[in-house]
Amino acid sequence: MKLLNKFLSLFKTESKEKVDEEEQTPMLINNLINFFLFCIVFIEGIISLRNENTIFAIPLLTLSLTFAFHFVYLSRNSMAKGMQNSLFFFSSVTFLYFVVFGSSTGINIIWSALFPPFIISLMGMRRGSIFSIIFFLLIAVIVLVINNYGWIEQAKEYTQTEKIVFLAFYAFFFITTYAIHFTYTEIILRKERRVLDSQNFNKTQEELISKLSHQIRTPLSNITGIIDILEKTNLSDDQRDYINTIHASSNNLVNVVNNMVAASKTNFSQIPAEEVSFNLYSTINNTIKLFQDDQEKKKFSLSLSADIPTNLIGNSIKIKQIFLNLLNSLLKYNNSELKTITIEVSRKEILPNKIVLKFRIISNTVVPMPKSKLGEDAIHSSDVIHLNRSKYINMLDLGITQKIIEMDGNHIDIIPDSVKTIIEFTATFKENIQSQSIENIKPPTKQSENYFKPVVDIADSNILLVEDNFSNQQIIILYIKNEVKKIEVAFNGKEALDKFGKAKYDLILMDIQMPIMDGFKATEKIRQIEKSTGTHTPIIAVTANAFPEDKERCLATGMDDYISKPFQPEDLIRKIKKHLS
Questions:
Q1: pTM for the whole thing?
Q2: N or C: which end of the chain has fewer CB within 10 A?
Q3: Which residues, at least 6 apart from 279, have a Cβ–Cβ distance to it below 8 Å?
Q4: DSSP tag of 81
């Protein structure tokens, strides 16, 4: 089989242009037909020439040169219809020639019977079958009628047995070829249907789980909110213990929902494969910003080697997804008071038109080391660490990330020790010719904001709450009513726009999923209005969409901050104070 695969690889196109698999298959078939027809006709021509039968030798050798021309030149270029039609014409002439004049080897019956497999493979099942039937009728007329009258002097004379064998051979090859192509087509169609049904099922399942997640988070946020308020009241020891139990169970339920949604997104093949020009530093830096807040002490450091171009051509979405997963896992399992993450990017290999980069992420996250049967000293062995890489990946929930990296032929390594964890992975890009190395970049001049933000005390602030659910409105008002005296409510984005045009608000709490107009559209409209007035009203997204990509979309739309349900009342108040000042 290996020898056969190597043989078939000789007939693949060498076009410089990118050709997908659907075009590669007919081009490979055309090359094979060219090659076999050249061999058949050339051998027949050489035998005729050796027998000094120039009447047969000259046409056959001429036809062999034609097939050689197709193979050497036309098959190395793009899959043009002219090539297919030309190959069909000369193939028909060749097989017709064998029917009328016979062959030097005496096996013209077999050669002519090969017409259906060649033509159906070349022209497709429908057109190839029509041409095969037409050719069958044509050779039947030639064999049964024309040859009997001797109209062509050099024509081969067939015996009655040869006529029957010839037509039977042709019919057998035609029926067999048609049956094989029909069966193959049915199998491919069924496979495509199964794949399509599977994709639709996965998409429907993900949408259902996403909706369930949102529906669970909203009441769960209200439950945890009430629990937080109850904890601040006078409770007996037993009551406080019951409240703490409910609180812990609610937090576990949040984790269950997170894991459920994460599991539904394992189909990473849906990541767009489009390669675009992007700034690597900005992509990574913007991803880091999604994890920066004042709730936890975190320190990030990002450095790129000076020989890396500013802009690369590749899949920026995939890089962002990888870093979202890696940073989320490292921070999730980091119990340190100060969480530090250092990201280093260097150029690993220099290849023609390609750039292979090595990403090194160093975190003070401590991963429990698996016990080794070889003793404590063997735990620090690099070989043992390499063998246990899958265990570390499972510990950090990086199975999906590993597949995303390795699906492009790259690799990921995890090197933990007693004080830190190092994750290394590679990625391949194309160089943007118009780009330059970061060592030649001058830092841009910082532009001042074109709007004025006065400091507002939270007690004097006027806040607009945009939320379609009445229960959620009451819970959020209950959270902040002791701090904020004036709170107005809008039930959807359209109502929020109407209120925004009539009154001045110091801050807006914006839900995302609402009827009539959602939070994204409302935010865009508000930002468009503010461009003409030179003002800026802070907008905080308050949503049950709780993943890093959701936060990124909120910030990209124009919102200033993001808080996901369920949350602590203190976190919401802290964010409000931050943006008012």
A1: 0.42
A2: N
A3: 310, 311
A4: H
Nearest to 568 by CA among 91, 232, 174, 309: 232
Smallest Cα–Cα separation from 12: which of 29, 3, 302? 29
Whether the predicted pLDDT of 181 surpasses 70: yes
Instruction: Label residue 329 left, alpha or beta by phi (over 0 means left) and psi (-120 to 50 means alpha).
Output: alpha
DSSP annotation of 335 reads -
Beta-ladder partners of 486:
462
Q: Are 313 and 273 in contact (CB under 8 A)?
A: no
CA–CA dist 466, 490 (Å, integer): 5
Is the pLDDT at 374 greater than 50, yes or no? Answer: no
Measured CA to CA in angstroms, residue 180 lies from 91, 112, 118, 130, 220 at distances of 21, 19, 13, 16, 59
pLDDT digit string, tens, across residues 143-177: 666 555 555 556 666 677 777 877 888 888 888 88
According to CATH, the topology of domain 458-580 is: Rossmann fold (3.40.50)
Find the helix packing angle between 160-231 and 237-264, rounded to 10°: 160
How far apart CA 344 and CA 346 sit, in angstroms, is: 7
By the 8 A CB rule, do 276 and 313 touch? Answer: yes
Q: So what's the pLDDT on residue 40? A: 78
**Domain locations along the chain:** 23-158, 197-264, 278-438, 458-580
Cα-to-chain-centroid distance, residue 529: 37
Of 340, 333, 362, 356, the residue nearest 424 (C-alpha): 362
CATH architecture of the region 278-438: 2-Layer Sandwich (3.30)
Ramachandran category for residue 355: left, alpha or beta (phi over 0 → left; psi -120 to 50 → alpha): beta
Closest by CA to 421, choosing from 331, 511, 492, is: 331
**Per-residue tokens: 88:** 């069909």
Residue 353 structure tokens: 């038109």
Both tokens assigned to 11: 């007939």
pLDDT, average across residues 116-121: 79
Q: How many CA atoms lie within 13 A of 339 on its CB side?
A: 20
3-class SS shares of the chain: helix, strand, coil, % to 5:
60, 15, 25
CA distances from 548 to 203, 215, 533 (A): 20, 19, 32
- List alpha helices for 232-315, DSSP H: 237-264, 280-289
